[in-house]
Amino acid sequence: MWIYEKKLEFPVSIKKPDARLAKIMIEQYGGAYSNRV
């Protein structure tokens, strides 16, 4: 059995969170319920 963990290749630090930009980015990747994200 395989266990899949989604990890980034390098650490990312978010200095100033932007909810509006995050929503736009999620929609570009197929929406909130997409299996591709």
From TrEMBL:
Cross-referenced InterPro entries: Ferritin-like, Ferritin-like_SF, Mn_catalase
Superkingdom classification of source: Bacteria
Protein name: Manganese containing catalase
Family the entry assigns: Belongs to the manganese catalase family.
Signal sequence bounds: none
Pfam families: Mn_catalase
